[in-house]
């Protein structure tokens, strides 16, 4: 086992002092162990924010892809290192494994380096709302009953992600901000839109029947926050396409951070100051 506690990251951590602070951060669907994982943006995110509580809402490591082909660059270790470091600094860390990292579900109830592994959790917001936190594949009928079909979808998805990376690389070369091809492709495909809204309704309905005020999940790689029949539905998105996080401010209000936009804003700020 790699000793994260006594190692240094490949890329040094940026100073902790000036980070934006939140009460809670939810992030999921990193898919570490795949080329699709946007580890650079994730590292940038982790180095610029801090919180009292952090939920890792599943599909952190992609065991399915790793089994097919081992891929683990230094940046992926750096992500794990930063998560472990956070736990040691005192952030209350809760890890809820998803379907791609389901091998960790057997450890639900245990603590690993200060990170609590749970099947699901109930989070209480600063304004007293109770939110059920789970990955979300529990409601994905395709994943449950036709596992092979989910793998076919997985292959098509991997192909789209390869294309997405090529577009991103070209855009970066021309100094254009991060833009997700796959995110926009998905928004255009009627079936995908129908699937997403159906998923959101099912999850919200299930949460409502459990008597909580809302639900936080990941899984479908589509960040969202909306009211569905009186239940607050939150999805923290992913770090493959959208590069998004869900955060709770200290007054209990919630926000989705689009990290590509945040980086663009940060990099534009000195230029704007210069122009003024
Ligand atoms: Mn998933």
TrEMBL record:
It comes from the Bacteria. GO terms for molecular function: metal ion binding; UDP-2,3-diacylglucosamine hydrolase activity. Gene3D superfamilies: 3.60.21.10. The keyword Membrane applies. GO terms for cellular component: membrane. Keywords: Cell inner membrane, Cell membrane, Manganese, Membrane, Metal-binding. GO terms for biological process: lipid A biosynthetic process. Transmembrane segments: none annotated. Coiled coil: none annotated. Residues 23-222 form the Calcineurin-like phosphoesterase domain. This is Phosphoesterase. It comes from Sphingomonas endophytica.
